[in-house]
Amino acid sequence: MPIDLNLSISENEYIEIRDLVYAKSGIWLGENKKGLVKARLAKRIRTFNFKSFKEYQQFILKEENSDELIEVINAISTNVTSFFREPEHFQLLEQVILPEIVERKSKAGQKKIRIWSAACSSGEEVYTILMILREYFRDDHSWDIRVLGTDISTKVLGIAKKGCYDQEKIKDLPVHLRKKYFNKFYDDGREIYSVSEEIKKMATFARFNLMDEKFAFQSKLDIIFCRNAMIYFDLESRKCLVKKIFDSIDKIGYFFIGHSESLIGLPSDFKIVSPAVYKKIL
Asked: Which residues fall within 8 angstroms of residue 115, CB to CB, at 6 or more apart?
């Protein structure tokens, strides 16, 4: 069915949907995203044969239709990612941070590493981290390594859990990593690459809202990647998020943000160690 070009969204309808998305996800759409909201929610409105945004809004506000609110967030969320995105971060992880963590934990008789990839989108960041870890430890399987990938969008998490990517997605991966950690197959003539079970078994994916009041992790985390998520939050939401992330990291641990983000102006005890990389030291 073609898009109904006559479907309109009033300023009040936009504000109500904008505020609802903010309350439930922390994503702040600002004052000039009405066209984006209209375009991305039009398909959902047609799915239910609603005549207006007002009818759709009344529908998603009902408690029994809470699953549809997730679809709203799925539609509005921007999920841009790639393997080895912002490569300087992964070079630092491999060459500096991992050796430091391994040395410190080995001296303490510990062999457990826990990493969280928040706002992980379709999983490329998680699998990049795991390939680096696997390359670093090579044949040493004595370490207990887990990477948690979370996102508010169930749609992208479904892709992440499958771990299947087309040729375009993996084109910039080093050849030796592609051969070692991916299995190639064909689907309707398309060349698809599936992440190996060796890597998949070290990953856990789950839906997670960064605006939750508390982060109830079972243990402190060594490293948190939360890149290019805060750009969608207002100042107060960013303050709360950074505080919760600080409290979730071990007494010596690292926090990665996107290069377009900064902790400047946010009350924080993190110490900057490299562009968009911070360290917690207690």
From this structure: 129, 146, 147, 148, 221, 222, 223, 224, 225
